[in-house]
Amino acid sequence: MPDADPAPAADPAAEPAVEPAAEPAVEHGPGAVGAPAALPGTDPREAVRTVFGELGEPPHVPHLPQLPARGPGADPVGRTAALLVDLPVDLQPSGWRFTDAPGRDQERARSYLRADLDELAEAADGWRGPLVLAVLGPWSLAAAVELHRGERSASDHGARRDVVASLAEGIAAHVADLRRLVPAARPVVQLEEPSLPAVLAGRLPTQSGYGSLRAVDRAEVRAGLRDVVDAVRAAGAEPVVRLAPDEPPLALVREAGAAGVALDVTRLGAHGWESLAATVEDGVRLWAGVLPAVADPPVVAALVDAVRGPWRRVGLPAAGLAGVVLTGAGGLQDLPPDALRGALRRLREAGAALAEASGD
Length: 360
Fold this sequence. Notes:
Layout: H1 44-55, H2 76-81, E1 89-92, E2 95-98, H3 104-123, E3 130-136, H4 138-144, H5 157-181, E4 186-192, H6 196-201, H7 218-234, E5 238-242, H8 250-255, E6 260-264, H9 270-281, E7 285-291, H10 300-313, E8 325-328, H11 340-357
Parallel strand pairs: 3-4, 4-5, 5-6, 6-7, 7-8
Antiparallel strand pairs: 1-2
């Protein structure tokens, strides 16, 4: 992993024109719901059986569970780092760091992933619908993993380039594994990018905590995200980008060619909904986060109104609600394990009600 000084930013004017987002490759019927985020518990067999028990019928969207309560290697950073090609990592007291050779922490992460895929293959036998693989996107991964010298990878131009290329290759292999294990599934890759606004605005703290890293040029961020999105498409999967609801860079996600965008719509302000409307009108599917990680979830009407009310206020047609996929507002790992099934059932009920509302 090079530690060179950042190269000069590319001239946005020299870039080719950005094509509009392509139509989604995977069909999601009206009323579809999913929960492609971290789940509670430590038993992968129980987790995947719960997912398919509650979401394993059309039009719903099951996923490969992530169980961070298992410890290092099951966390989102370790899980995604396990996919990287020719970029070994190990866990240090300050977090994950690139190393010269793979360590036992990376092998643990890969072992967790292999075991989870084996459980998925059994539970999803014969599944013919969409199936989600959730991973960190390139910019949130670069914001989290350190270089040899201890600074974030996002601080170094060469490191950023290597993370993008390695992750693109690793995700393609991940999709190929899914296709081998569940041949009839239609893969969806959710690229989780919570750190994207901080990368763009220069708000990522240095490892010392006394300063902030320089902002990464928007053109470079867009190009890196697009490279990974293109790799997802080339592997035969649908690319969805999940954003944090605070200052979500929706225009950039549209320009990068994502088929879908996922975010917590309950925390999205009026300006965010205006940008989201433009995103939906460009043909990008909305994965609307509405279900909080609480043991007693809101009533169905409240979950539906979190989407339907602002959807109407920004002038989107009611019929378009049929294309919305309802999801958790964020990770569900803080739920008591015995509350997960009830929460997913509530989400299913809300999905059915939203499908009815699309005919209003």
